[in-house]
Write a structure and sequence with these properties.
about 450 residues, alpha/beta, Aspartate Aminotransferase, domain 2, Aspartate Aminotransferase, domain 1, 7-stranded mixed beta sheet, 4-stranded antiparallel beta sheet, 13 helices, 13 strands, about 15% strand, globular, binds pyridoxal-5'-phosphate
Length: about 450
């Protein structure tokens, strides 16, 4: 395990200090750490995670947040503004995703704490809407759909059926999905696009299956929900994936990714509010008073609603379109660099995110070299592949050129080292994929180290 972060530089607190530290000293400490950590991504070499990457924008969001950071959105009588922000965030997202054109149903939404939260609430809603005393409900997802579906199904006692994908297109095997729908199936899942490859499942075909079998269809637009609509407007070849597709019943779209809001928000859109309403929890006979909450969270900060609303209203369609234009064209230029090498192969039909592999050598050799040049790609397995989720930091001048030349050197390095084992990999600390006792032990150690690092706190 590495050393405890900032050991030797800043005091380690094992107990609550008896006497407090003055505000300026604390703010200096925080700013030293954030300045150092921002350098990792500011140069445009880090895949995903910093979607806007613009400090002026972050400062603006932080000021918006500050007005309501202390407010609990459960107490709406004290903060009618929260209802304005939340209703408008939902309405704007629904409209972006085709909800305004829905006929015969009243669309609705929920603002959740992130993509996993939106997916969990969708799965819970499908379970509750189809609640039956005897049968265990099931959901069918493509293998490439996010593990948040596995987590939600695990938490809510839903059986998850995992459909294989075509190895070349990376899209879900529709025949398998059709063959595995039964009377206990409550929903199908498709991604737009998926996290690993950025590819979009055939949502139109999944919608037909969903209508035919009278089950729900969740489209995971956590990653693509706020950028693919603008890619389509810009003329990129992206199949329809939103509420314009018959059969789509819910869509998750993360405001904290390409919505350019602060971390901790996502929107779950419902074609019909009856489905959303099925998962409310309330308790009217508790001695502490009557209790109800719209989702799984209790108290939430009004600041996040204000900052999300501020990001959307500030950027507007033209702002999102301008950002999408730069991201899509940067991604295409980087993909061209990949395609210029015969030994590299792009996975399926990518968009703002592209993943590539090699049939000639372990692609993690390429990653090994790119790491020495400051690139932080994300890794996939089965087959080994690496991806770049293009965000605004990559659209800075010079980044594509740097990627093109570093990639050429990386390919030469990979060819020269093809007979050795690569240093980096999709394996977690040398543990191969799949559930094993070894993996279990390693994950527990890894999690403990991430959260408290107790093993490695040096004595002072
Ligand atoms: C990020 C992501 C999620 C999960 O979202 P979190 O915000 O990390 O909880 C789900 N699906 C896709 C496609 C994603 O990219």
């Amino acid at each position: 395990m590495s050393e405890f972060p900032y050991a030797g530089q800043f005091e380690i607190h094992r107990t609550l200090p008896e006497h407090g530290t003055d505000q300026d000293t604390i703010l200096d400490i925080l700013s030293t750490m954030s300045t150092a950590e921002n350098r990792v991504w500011e140069g445009g070499q880090c895949s995903g995670t910093m979607y806007c990457g613009d400090h002026d924008h972050y400062d603006f969001l932080n000021r918006a947040f500050a007005n309501f950071s202390h407010v609990n959105t459960l107490q709406r009588d004290m903060c009618p503004s929260a209802t304005k922000f939340e209703a408008e965030i939902i309405a704007m997202t629904l409209d972006l995703l085709g909800g305004s054109d829905l006929k015969g149903s009243t669309p609705g939404g929920l603002v959740t704490s992130g993509g996993s939260g939106s997916i969990a609430h969708a799965m819970l809603a499908y379970r509750e809407m189809n609640a039956s005393a005897t049968a265990r409900p099931n959901v069918i997802k493509p293998e490439t759909a996010h593990p948040a579906f596995d987590k939600a199904c695990h938490l809510f006692g839903i059986e998850l059926r995992v459909a294989p994908v075509d190895p070349l297109t990376t899209q879900v095997d529709l025949g398998w999905v059709k063959a595995n729908i039964d009377t206990n199936t409550v929903a199908l899942v498709g991604s737009a696009g998926n996290y690993g490859y950025g590819t979009v499942d055939p949502i139109g075909e999944l919608g037909k299956l969903a209508l035919e079998h009278e089950v729900g269809l969740h489209v995971d637009g956590c990653l693509g929900g706020f950028i693919l609509p603008f890619g389509r407007e810009l003329g990129y070849d992206i199949e329809p994936f939103d509420f314009s597709v018959p059969g789509v019943t819910t869509i998750s779209a993360d405001t904290h990714k390409y919505g350019y809001a602060l971390k901790g928000t996502s929107v779950l859109c419902f074609a019909d509010e009856a489905l959303r309403d099925s998962q409310y929890f309330y308790r009217t006979d508790w001695s502490g008073g009557k209790y109800c909450s719209p989702g799984m969270d209790g108290s939430r900060s009004g600041g996040l609603l204000a900052a999300t609303w501020a990001a959307m209203v500030h950027l507007g369609r033209s702002g999102y379109r301008r950002y999408a234009e730069a991201i899509f064209s940067t991604s295409k230029a980087m993909q061209d660099a990949v395609r210029s090498h015969d030994s590299l192969r792009i996975m399926g039909k990518p968009s703002f995110l592209f993943s590539f592999t090699s049939d000639d050598y372990d692609i993690y050799h390429v990653n090994d070299f790119l790491r020495t040049k400051g690139w932080r790609m994300n890794g996939q397995q089965y087959p080994n592949a690496i991806h770049m989720a293009v965000t605004r930091p990559q659209t800075q001048p010079g980044t594509v050129e740097r990627f093109t030349s570093d990639l050429a050197d990386a390919v030469a390095y990979a060819k020269a080292h093809a007979h050795e084992a690569a240093k980096s990999g999709a394996v977690y600390g040398g543990v191969e994929g799949g559930p094993t006792d070894e993996a279990d032990a390693f994950i527990k150690m890894f999690m403990a180290a991430m959260m408290d690092q107790q093993m490695s706190i040096p004595d002072q």
